[in-house]
């Protein structure tokens, strides 16, 4: 038998590959985690099978200490450990919130509490939790404008919207913060600064779990479903796992059960949702490698770039696509152009004499071999154009990394997004090529 070709060595290779990808360095000895566990124990948290660890691909996360079976509970966090609007309203902030008109939003209540408790430092009952929270975040709102400029165009627009949204959140909260002055010896402006509120906003947005909606008269009607869940919020995301997570009204614990199996010493993941990489970047500030939901978006401008400019029916075709919701969410994915993208291209490349068949196109019917072939050819041209553009962007990001060392972390993140997009486009180009060959 040749060396390395047998079953035993295949299994060994697989094991090596799995462990080297997921091997983490246990961090439970660190003082901040010792303090956090004491704090959790005082609040009736019973030791779980998970320990904090640092992993090569995903950073800080939780590692299993034993193997975990399908359906097994991986963590159960008592209600007393959760930070919700109940916590805030029952605190020293409650009376100030009740007085303030119009009522503050649930999000503002949570953010105010986080900033205020962070400011309290050693005096805060939540100190062990606050100590393990990230100091900086990588959601687009936290990125330098020159890094935002290097994002794919549709994500850049959303990043700018996110920045405007947080700025407006800050501006509209300042009078409420002023009303809290009697609680502090220092000027509230210095405590509730933009950067402090931004940190709190990112904390809630990247870490909160979902709870059944609650309603407080002293808070605005916006949905009140967020809870910060210390320790449990150290679980990273994987698009490949499924979990059941919810607050159990009988045990009064927030519980997570895994539907996957985990080996001892592996990183345990949960799934934040079937999100593509743009959404993961926007909402959580990271990109997931090999994400099956990842895709490359095709804008309307690019869609028509390779169509004949002489087509007299083009405006009509575009308005049909708009009316039927086919102008948005057109994508390339790991297995080629999406059905929506191909359908849009088939409609746009309909021959003049076949134009009346446009309804059939939207229903997925084949109109003619020519139409099938033309739409695939255009999809391939768009895909090649994107591959060139993405390669150029990667070179630009790499140059910027050399020039701006201080931005290396932010730029590396943007680079990983473009790298994933390039992989998707290459896979799409290959699929398209096979489809084109099958048609000839
Ligand atoms: C709920 S927290 C998870 C714990 C976090 N890693 C920590 O150290 O505090 C969510 C954040 O973890 C990071 N994260 C989650 N899943 C990740 C993954 N698969 N790869 C890289 N970072 C991830 C992102 O920064 C995200 O905003």
TrEMBL record:
One of its GO terms (cellular component) is nucleus. Pfam families: Rubis-subs-bind, SET. The keyword tRNA-binding does not apply. It is found in: Cytoplasm, Cytosol; Nucleus. Keywords: Cytoplasm, Inflammatory response, Methyltransferase, Nucleus, S-adenosyl-L-methionine, Transferase. It is an enzyme of class 2 (transferase). GO terms for molecular function: histone H3K4 monomethyltransferase activity. It catalyses: L-lysyl-[protein] + S-adenosyl-L-methionine = N(6)-methyl-L-lysyl-[protein] + S-adenosyl-L-homocysteine + H(+); N(6),N(6)-dimethyl-L-lysyl(20)-[histone H4] + S-adenosyl-L-methionine = N(6),N(6),N(6)-trimethyl-L-lysyl(20)-[histone H4] + S-adenosyl-L-homocysteine + H(+); L-lysyl(20)-[histone H4] + S-adenosyl-L-methionine = N(6)-methyl-L-lysyl(20)-[histone H4] + S-adenosyl-L-homocysteine + H(+); N(6)-methyl-L-lysyl(20)-[histone H4] + S-adenosyl-L-methionine = N(6),N(6)-dimethyl-L-lysyl(20)-[histone H4] + S-adenosyl-L-homocysteine + H(+). Residues 48-273 form the SET domain. One of its GO terms (biological process) is methylation. Its EC number is 2.1.1.364. The keyword Nucleus applies. Forms a ternary complex with TBK1 and ZNF268; the interaction with TBK1 is ZNF268-dependent and leads to TBK1 monomethylation. Belongs to the class V-like SAM-binding methyltransferase superfamily. SETD4 family. This is SET domain-containing protein 4. It comes from Callithrix jacchus. The lineage of its organism: Eukaryota, Metazoa, Chordata, Craniata, Vertebrata. The gene is SETD4.
């Amino acid at each position: 038998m040749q060396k390395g070709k047998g079953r035993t060595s295949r299994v060994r290779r697989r094991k090596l590959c799995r462990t080297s990808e997921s091997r983490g360095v246990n961090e439970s000895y660190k003082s901040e985690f010792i303090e956090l566990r004491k704090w959790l124990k005082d609040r009736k948290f019973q030791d779980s099978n998970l320990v904090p660890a640092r992993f090569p691909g995903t950073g800080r996360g939780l590692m299993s200490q034993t193997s975990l079976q399908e359906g097994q509970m991986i963590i159960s966090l008592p209600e007393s450990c959760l930070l919700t609007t109940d916590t805030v309203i029952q605190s020293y902030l409650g009376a100030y919130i009740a007085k303030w008109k119009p009522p503050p939003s649930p999000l503002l209540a949570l953010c105010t509490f986080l900033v205020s408790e962070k400011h309290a430092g050693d005096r805060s009952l939540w100190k062990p939790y606050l100590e393990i929270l990230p100091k900086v975040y990588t959601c687009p709102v936290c990125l330098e404008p020159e890094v935002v400029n290097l994002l794919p165009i549709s994500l850049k627009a959303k990043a700018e919207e996110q920045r405007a949204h947080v700025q407006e959140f800050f501006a509209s909260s300042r009078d409420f913060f002023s009303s809290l002055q009697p609680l502090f010896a220092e000027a509230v402006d210095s405590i509730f600064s933009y950067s402090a509120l931004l940190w709190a906003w990112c904390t809630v947005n990247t870490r909160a779990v979902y709870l059944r909606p609650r309603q407080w008269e002293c808070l605005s009607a916006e949905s009140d479903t967020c809870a910060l869940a210390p320790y449990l919020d150290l679980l990273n995301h994987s698009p490949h796992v499924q979990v059941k997570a919810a607050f159990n009204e009988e045990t009064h614990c927030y519980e997570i059960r895994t539907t996957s199996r985990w080996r001892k010493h592996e990183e345990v993941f949960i799934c934040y949702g079937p999100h593509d990489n743009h959404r993961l970047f926007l909402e959580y500030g990271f990109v997931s490698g090999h994400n099956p939901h990842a895709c490359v978006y095709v804008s309307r401008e690019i869609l028509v770039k390779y169509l004949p400019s002489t087509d007299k029916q083009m405006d009509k075709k575009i308005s049909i696509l708009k009316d039927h919701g086919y102008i948005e969410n057109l994508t390339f994915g790991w297995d080629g152009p999406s059905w929506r993208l191909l359908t849009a291209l088939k409609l746009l490349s309909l021959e003049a004499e076949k134009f009346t068949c446009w309804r059939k196109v939207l229903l997925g019917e084949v109109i003619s071999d020519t139409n099938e072939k033309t739409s695939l050819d255009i999809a391939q041209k768009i895909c090649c154009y994107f591959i060139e553009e993405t390669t150029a962007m990667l070179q630009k990001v790499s140059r910027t990394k050399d020039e701006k060392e201080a931005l290396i972390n932010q730029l590396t993140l943007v680079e990983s997004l473009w790298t994933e997009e390039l992989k998707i486009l290459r896979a799409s180009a290959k699929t398209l090529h096979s489809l084109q060959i099958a048609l000839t």
